[in-house]
Write a structure and sequence with these properties.
The protein is of the alpha+beta class. The chain folds into five domains: about 10-95, DNA Primase, Chain A; about 105-230, DNA primase, catalytic core, N-terminal domain (DNA primase DNAg catalytic core, N-terminal domain, Alpha-Beta Complex), CATH 3.90.980; about 245-365, Dna Topoisomerase Vi A Subunit, Chain: A, domain 2 (3-Layer(aba) Sandwich), CATH 3.40.1360; about 380-445, no CATH class; about 450-570. A six-stranded mixed β-sheet has the order 12-14-13-15-16-17, with helices on both faces. The protein has a five-stranded antiparallel β-sheet with strand order 1-2-3-4-5. Helix 14 packs across helix 15 (about 355-360). The radius of gyration is 27 Å and the shape is globular. Residues about 435-450 have low confidence and may be disordered.
């Protein structure tokens, strides 16, 4: 049941007095076309208006980036504030007095104040670390920065500091921050009765959000014998590694100088700093984790094109291939910079200079060309067996393109590479397409965090909680397509505990789920939800296949398959 923290009649009056058109008009110039008013979206860069305001139903929706909501949501996003603060702003605009706080409201306010205290403590710690960088006992950090040729502007733009043992602990306690807040904010840990700095004796890179607040830290070791190169703030109420983007706080300044038409993504903080220092902006990185759909949606607010500039080694190539479908799913155009000799961006800037690095970025390859090129490098095309294997892999890439015209372009490209006739490749493409479908398009579908992934998360939660109804053997494993989730499922079923960093990230995210709705019936629904998505995808593919098929017998077989799927969906039957 939905909870209301304001009396319903007060809330209705607030909305009535803050008409969506007048509210949006305070920020944007609206043009009426029929019943709808239009403007260029303030939440992502665009030249043609796709931001629509529906006066009749009192909501807005952007057909470009998908942002939508009411007057309260709009003010919250435009003012970079919470919904509670947006309500206060709207109430003040129309002269309405805020109601007295209810018990539920007080709980919300308590959590809100706690978060504010965490942010305050993190900002104070950031300032302390910055000052500590210039102390005599920070020589190890100063020497490292000189060796890496950091400029003063780099230190200022990214507010770099130094964590000198546990000195920040005393400083923050002297500033009257409680131990509880320091631990909850991820600044400190506790051993026995002693607080300690979680990133002690490290070069400090503050993680600053788009509002300019510090929400966490990344500490780089300066000791050669330390195997943990980077230590990041753990997950906290104000820091989510799966959505934080390093370098995003500079976007406002960049937008003052130029339109943001594309964003460069690199692997680490130092690469962000070095690219920015060389004038290659805006450049960002994800925080200690693989790129997620949350990162992609956030980036989509600012532009329509992403340039991936990951390290040129095999790990960088794998990270690039993982990131591409996530970015495409968010509606972004994707290009890739292929860095020479396995170098990272920092090394390339040193070797080539900023101008040549800019040329590499400007001439980034369309993602399909990149995938075809990197796959080609594994094979000797003068060897017929290798050529056959390459064509098979390449056609799998081409088969995932959405339009026939795109496929046509890359079929011709592939024909030039392999000296195989276009007509032959087209026949093979049809086979590759069928094979891709039968595998449920693992690379693309498995990375879509939509309905079935939420269901998978509840399945994992039930296993983690060792619910009796969840520990039975069940063949849902083959329908969990995302490799990370599938691996976690198998490990939990086998009671293994050797989870890698990415798997731990997923397990930590399960804490956000509502345990109260998890029972045996809900668990069964989740199982069917996973299978249902597989069936529906297959049904859609078969329907397209049926339309294109001219053979009567084949059409009959396809029709029977579709009817069988419909029957399974109706009866909630799982194979």
């Amino acid at each position: 049941m939905q909870k209301y923290y304001y009396p319903p009649e007060w809330f209705i009056e607030l909305k009535q007095k803050n008409d969506i058109v007048s509210t949006v008009s305070r920020y944007l110039t609206l043009t009426r076309k029929g019943r709808t008013l239009w403007a260029c979206c303030p939440f992502h860069h665009e030249k043609t208006p796709s931001f629509a305001v529906n006066e009749e139903n009192q909501f807005y929706h952007c057909f470009g980036c998908g942002e939508s909501g009411d007057a309260i949501t709009f003010v919250s996003k435009m003012e970079n504030c919470s919904k509670g603060k947006a309500i206060e702003i709207l109430a003040e605009k129309c002269g309405m007095k805020l109601p007295e706080k209810s018990g539920d409201f007080e709980l919300i306010e308590k959590r809100k104040k706690e978060k504010e205290q965490m942010i305050s403590a993190l900002n104070e710690a950031k300032e302390f670390y910055k000052q500590s960088l210039y102390n005599r006992n920070a020589k190890i950090a100063q020497d490292y920065l000189k060796k890496r040729q950091f400029k003063k502007s780099d230190l200022e733009n990214f507010e770099i500091g130094f964590a000198n043992r546990n000195s920040v602990v005393k400083h923050l306690l002297d500033k009257h921050f409680s131990e509880e807040i320091l631990i909850k904010a991820g600044i400190c840990g506790k051993y026995g009765n002693r607080l300690f700095d979680l990133i002690s004796d490290r070069l400090v890179f503050p993680i600053i959000n788009s509002f300019g607040d510090c929400v966490g830290f990344s500490g780089r070791t300066l000791k050669l014998d330390d195997k943990t190169k980077y230590r990041n703030t753990p997950q906290t109420p104000v820091f989510d590694k799966g959505s934080c983007i390093y370098g995003i706080h500079l976007f406002k300044e960049i937008k003052k100088e130029k339109n943001i038409t594309k964003i460069i993504i690199v692997e680490g903080q130092i690469d962000v700093i070095k690219m920015t220092s060389a004038g290659l902006t805006p450049t960002v990185a994800c925080m200690g984790t693989a790129l997620t759909d949350k990162h992609a949606k956030e980036l989509k607010r600012y532009c329509d094109e992403i340039v991936l500039c990951f390290d040129g080694d095999s790990a960088g190539q794998k990270a690039t291939e993982r990131a591409i479908p996530i970015l495409l799913d968010a509606g972004l155009n994707v290009k890739v910079v292929k860095l020479p000799n396995g170098n990272d961006p920092d090394e390339c800037i040193k070797l080539l200079g900023a101008e040549k690095m800019q040329i590499l970025v400007d001439n980034a390859m369309p993602y399909v060309e990149y995938l075809l090129e990197t796959k080609k490098e594994k094979y000797n095309l003068k060897n017929n067996d290798d050529k056959g294997k390459y064509i098979k892999e390449a056609l799998t890439v081409v088969s995932k393109l959405k339009t026939a015209s795109e496929q046509e372009i890359y079929i011709k490209h592939l024909s030039n590479l392999t000296d195989v006739a276009v007509s032959t490749l087209k026949r093979d493409l049809h086979i590759a397409d069928e094979n891709t479908v039968s595998l449920q398009d693992v690379d693309v579908l498995s990375l879509k965090e939509y309905g079935n992934i939420k269901a998978v998360k509840y399945i994992l939660l039930a296993l983690k909680e060792q619910k009796s109804y969840a520990t039975e053997s069940f063949l849902i494993e083959k329908y969990i397509l995302h490799p990370t989730y599938n691996s976690i499922y198998r490990k939990l079923m086998n009671k293994e505990e050797n989870f890698d960093e990415e798997e731990i990230e997923v397990l930590n995210s399960l804490k956000e789920l509502d345990k109260s709705i998890l029972d045996e019936n809900f668990y069964r629904e989740c199982q069917f939800k996973i299978y249902e998505n597989v069936l529906k995808d297959k049904q859609q593919v078969l329907s397209e296949k049926y339309k294109a098929c001219e053979n009567i017998e084949e059409r009959k077989n396809i029709s029977n398959e579709i009817l069988e799927i419909i029957k399974k969906l109706k009866n909630k039957q799982i194979d």
